[in-house]
Design brief:
Layout (H helix, E strand, L loop, with lengths): L7 H16 L8 E4 L6 E6 L9 H10 L3 H6 L1 E4 L3 H13 L3 E5 L5 H11 L3 E5 L4 H15 L2 E2 L6 H16 L7 E5 L4 H13 L4 E7 L4 H8 L22 H10 L2 E5 L1 H15 L9 H8 L8 E6 L6 H8 L8 E10 L4 H8 L5 E8 L5 E2 L2 E6 L2 H13 L3 E4 L4 H4 L12 E10 L4 H10 L4 E8 L5 E10 L2 H10 L7 E6 L2 H8 L5
Parallel strand pairs: 2-10, 3-4, 3-6, 4-5, 7-8, 7-10, 8-9
Antiparallel strand pairs: 1-2, 11-13, 11-14, 11-15, 12-14, 12-17, 16-18, 16-19, 17-18
Organism: Luteolibacter soli
Enzyme class: lyase
Catalytic activity: L-threonine = 2-oxobutanoate + NH4(+)
Length: about 525
């Protein structure tokens, strides 16, 4: 019987066997490593970030292009990709001597564009078009229909799925199985289809859990509708899995191999990225951490089980690493953002810190004076124990402070800190560099500021460095008090490394006053 006539699952299994021989012309097997930072769960991580293109996509692209006929090779190939599949096509194009045109969204990170050029050399042409993966696909398909080039699909092709399935073959041969569960990220579903089919073949009792971002759950929508359906909008934080509509072929496979599907938030993905870094020194792209994010979310139910996850890629823009590292979601501690109403009078801010926020870590502090008699400082607080955070509102109410929860608020995220310069008498702004240890910032305010000036501005965000940096505004009743304070303030002191007055132009921009 010809393989094309077999049922989809049987054909896929056979093609994975043939892919074994093809894909290792282009790259080597990747490691399977134990991650021990999630208590109670035995987690094994398939490190596809250590592959030739720092992502698993080389397997499917190379397997598909290795079976092109001589005529198809001469005509060339065309594809569309958000980045990782493009690198796989580029790698194969160079190795096989095939010309490839690769359509990518205009928003594709430069690191992925550069990698495509690196792997493909003069065998590839990158064409940036549209603002989404779907627009790039439409342009690539139009090219293929007019030029006669072979379209190499990123996921919805049995040869592509079979190539991805070879990573599961390596897992089976590793000797670390069998696994109780595998958490597999899904974009179009090519990797999840190939891997789940192979794992179910050898370990029928394994639980296969598909994982998608909450704003890009196209396979979840397909399973609910009974067929692939397009999403109205797609979140692109996890850009490698940002697919509007699941594949027809991948849906057919996953409809039978998936036991269930999970969705995770961007914050949960950020937390998983941090865990991979701290546990394996692995820098995962957001899509690569989806599986681990779902495991961490369900770790109580997974206690005592052996679980497989795949780090599917590490092609992340350097700037995005910084944004993720500084996001609230990347913290391993529970966090909340609270805005508190306090009287606008000397000492009240310190009283608030001394009483209601004792025992919590202040990760972000935003405040600007906008009213004569009331202040509304905003604090993002963290604690290892969520119960400690839950107790803060009770402490605020007990002391008569009004408060509101602003966790996730847009103005907090964008650090929109208003300040009315017309309410200030004799302000000074200080750049404070202090040692990031409990009590250091509090001691500076207590010993240097209490009773001498009012806080009128505060801009601080924890960066993870040993030195914290804050921009502080102090307002004095008289100019003479301001001068006396500055003359008596040492540039270096107990608990802080440096305290310098901000230059006049900056102060003028903050307050609206003319420099002078």
């Amino acid at each position: 019987m010809e393989r094309e006539g077999l049922p989809p699952d049987r054909r896929l299994r056979q093609e994975i066997l043939f892919a074994r021989e093809r894909v290792y012309r282009f790259g080597q097997p990747t490691p399977l490593e134990h991650l021990s930072l999630v208590p109670g769960v035995e987690i094994w991580v398939k490190r596809e970030d250590l592959s030739p293109i720092k992502a698993y996509k080389w397997r499917g692209a190379c397997n598909r292009m290795a079976v092109l006929t001589p005529e198809e090779k001469a005509t060339g190939v065309v594809t569309a990709s958000a980045g990782n599949h493009a690198q796989g096509v580029a790698l194969a194009a160079r190795a096989l001597g095939i010309q490839a045109r690769i359509y990518m969204p205009r928003s594709t990170p430069r690191v992925k564009q550069s990698a495509v050029r690196h792997h493909g050399g003069d065998r590839v042409e990158i064409i940036l078009t549209g603002d989404s993966y779907d627009e790039a696909v439409a342009a690539a398909l139009d090219d293929a229909s007019t030029s006669g080039a072979t379209y190499v699909h990123a996921y919805d092709d049995v040869q592509v799925m079979a190539g991805q399935g070879t990573l599961a073959d390596e897992v089976v041969l590793s000797g670390h199985g069998p696994f109780d569960a595998a958490y597999l990220q899904i974009g179009g579903g090519g990797m999840a289809a190939g891997v789940s089919e192979w794992l179910k073949t050898y370990w029928p009792e394994i639980e296969i859990v598909g994982v998608e971002g909450v704003g890009q759950a196209s396979m979840k929508a397909a399973l609910e509708a009974g067929k692939p359906v397009p999403l109205d909008q797609v979140d692109i934080f996890c850009d490698g899995t940002a697919v509007r509509k699941a594949g027809t072929n991948t849906f057919e496979i996953l409809n039978s191999t998936l036991d269930r599907i999970e969705t995770v938030t961007n914050a949960e993905v950020s937390r998983a990225i941090r865990t991979l870094w701290e546990g394996l020194r692995c820098v995962s792209e957001p899509s690569g951490a989806l599986g681990l994010a779902a495991v961490m979310k369900n770790r109580e139910q997974l206690a005592g089980k052996r679980v497989l996850v795949v780090v599917s890629g590490a092609n992340i823009d350097f700037l995005q690493i910084g944004l993720i590292a500084q996001s609230e979601g990347s913290s391993q501690s529970a966090s909340r953002t609270l805005r508190v109403r306090i009287p606008e009078r000397p000492g009240t801010m310190l009283e608030l810190l001394d009483t209601c926020f004792e025992g919590v870590n202040i990760a972000d502090f935003q405040y600007g004076k906008v009213h004569e008699s009331e202040a509304w400082p905003a604090f993002t607080i963290t604690a290892e124990d969520a119960a400690v955070l839950d107790a803060v509102p009770e402490k605020l109410q007990a002391r008569g402070f009004q408060w509101e929860d602003l966790t996730g608020a847009v103005d907090i995220a964008f650090r929109a800190i208003p300040l009315r310069g017309d309410l200030l008498a004799s302000p000074v702004f200080l750049r404070l560099d202090f040692y990031e240890r409990p009590g250091a910032l509090h001691d500076f305010l207590d010993k240097r500021v209490r009773g001498r000036a009012n806080l009128c501005y505060f801009n601080y965000r924890q960066s993870g460095e040993r030195i914290g940096r804050a921009l502080i505004g102090l307002d004095f009743a008289e100019e003479s008090q301001r001068r006396e304070f500055l003359e008596s303030l040492p540039e270096h002191g107990d608990g802080y490394r440096s305290c310098k007055q901000v230059d006049s132009p900056t102060s003028a921009r903050l307050t609206g006053h003319s420099p002078g």
